[in-house]
Amino acid sequence: MIFPFDPRIEHASTIPARLYNDPVYLELERERVFSHTWQLVGRLEQIAEHGAYFTATVGNDSLVILRDGDTVRAFHNVCLHRAGPVAQGCGKRNTLQCRYHGWTYTLGGALLRAPEMEGTESFVPKDMSLIPVTVATWGPLVFVNLDGKAPPLLEMLEDIPQRVAPFGCENMRYVATKHWDINCNWKVYVDNYLEGYHLPLVHPGLYREIDYDQYQVEPHRYYSVQHAPLRPVHGASGERLYDPAKAETGEAVYVWLFPNTMLNVYLGQMQTNVVLPLSTTVRCV
């Protein structure tokens, strides 16, 4: 389904409601959107050491992301034998092992051991490697692309790295993760993020911190940037850990990366939001 795009805001219209509540569209999105795009799955500090790994889910696919020496790798978290997982949660290991029959793989994905398979006809260990997934990093963030056909990550980001460079995101340290189970289609969350129209009523604290009259939205091919100057406010929102009166980079920047990744960037702080569909109708996290 293709809808014509008219950049003139006075000609804007809503898309059909069925795109939000028809389960057929969610499966199409998982197949044609989430698998074709870069998905934020974690942070480099999670895999700072050799053998460190963490697992993630993109669409319907379970993945394992790890460090093998100086190389960051990602694989489908599926044993080539009976499709059991080769990693659980996060940790540090020298090999990946399926806990069903003990098939063991190197951190490079090659099959290392397959108990009692000696002499089996047509069994070729070198053909039984874990299925790799394209992985790339930007600053402290780790992204994957399931089908390997997305444009290079830095090409998709265009000038975002330069835009947020003054904020020093690469030197920030991880503080906390929060999860929300929201009773809406994932695109409703994105729709909300892509406008500042709701700030005066929904976020009065943030509304006081920014110059709302100077709020701007810049659409690009793969992303959108919203930004507004900050202004000194006594008792500013507790979500932001800086003093706007002392801010050298006096701007709030909000970046949406198609389709479901959001970066809220302030001086000394960056929040990353990733919205994932949980059900065929309304739930997302």
List keywords for this structure.
285 residues, Rieske Iron-sulfur Protein, 2 domains, 4-stranded antiparallel beta sheet, single chain, 7 helices, alpha+beta, Naphthalene 1,2-dioxygenase Alpha Subunit, Chain A, domain 1
Number of DSSP strands? 17
Give average pLDDT, whole number.
89
What is the tally of helical segments?
7
* Percentage beta strand: 25-35%
What structural class do the secondary elements suggest? Answer: alpha+beta
Kindly give the count of domains.
2
CATH C-level category of the largest domain: Alpha Beta
Distance from first to last alpha carbon: 26 Å
Biggest beta-sheet profile: 5 strands, antiparallel
Shape estimate:
globular
What name does the CATH topology of the largest domain carry? Naphthalene 1,2-dioxygenase Alpha Subunit, Chain A, domain 1
H/E element string? HHEEEEEEEEEEHHEHHHEEEEEE
Taking all Cα atoms into account, the compactness measure Rg is 22 Å
Spell out the CATH superfamily of the largest domain: Naphthalene 1,2-dioxygenase Alpha Subunit, Chain A, domain 1
The CATH architecture category of the largest domain equals Alpha-Beta Complex
Oligomer: single chain
Provide structural commentary.
Helices cover 15% and strands 29% of the residues. The protein is of the alpha+beta class and 285 residues long. The protein folds into 2 domains: 39-149, Rieske [2Fe-2S] iron-sulphur domain (Rieske Iron-sulfur Protein), CATH 2.102.10.10; 158-284, Alpha-Beta Complex (Naphthalene 1,2-dioxygenase Alpha Subunit, Chain A, domain 1), CATH 3.90.380.10. The strands form 5 sheets. The chain has a 5-stranded antiparallel beta sheet with strand order 12-13-14-15-16, with no helix packed on it. Strands 4-3-2-5 form a 4-stranded antiparallel beta sheet, with no helix packed on it. The protein starts with 17 loop residues before the first helix and ends with a strand.
